[in-house]
Predict the structure.
Amino acid sequence: MSLEPTSPAKKIPIVKLVIAGVVLGIIGLFVLREVGLTRLVEWFDRCVTLIRDMGPWAFFSAMALLPAVGAPLSAFNLVAGEAFAPRMTMLGVIVTVAVAIAANLALTYWLARYAMRPMLTRLVARYGYAVPRITPKNALTMSLIVRLTPGPPFFLQSYLLGLAEVPFRLYMLVSWLAVLPLALSVVMLGKAAREGNMGKIAVVFGVMVVAVVAVQIVRQKIAKRET
């Protein structure tokens, strides 16, 4: 297992991304047509009601803990605004989401580097890999590549960087700044979608697309420089 890029950086597959977006949109419309918008809204409202009844302490504590074992962070982001903005204000939700993400990052790092390191090292070795080592010289570059590479789940990236012994401060700064823009976009998207505000939805989607493309441009430039 290595964090070193093994092939030259490729161009951003803009056409493929557009095609994938169109396909996902068609699938979404088909599901919406079959299930019905009213029923989807009812399901979402029930979910939000259950979460709201839990209270913010239980919800955000779960958000800080469960993604460390593979729970999707986006699921928490999607309902956080609608569930707790009336009680905490949207700004309060955004700040609390950012704190919960930071807590999760710190927890996952501790698990990977200390508490679960022997078990994870044996698991990696069992499949014929070696635990990567990052030097002070390439720590920032490799951390950015890992965090900005599409595909690997959020928690798996955290475990990889922890096993690689990336300095904690650098790990936290890079990871937090890398995940926060899309995470907060999803928070606002969930709130705007429930309100049916198409203007806000369009703006959030636009921000998300720009963020994804910008992230890939940065990643490929970094990978090209390292190669």
Summary: Residues 22 and 28 are 10 Å apart (CA to CA). Residues 1-12 have pLDDT under 50 and may be disordered.
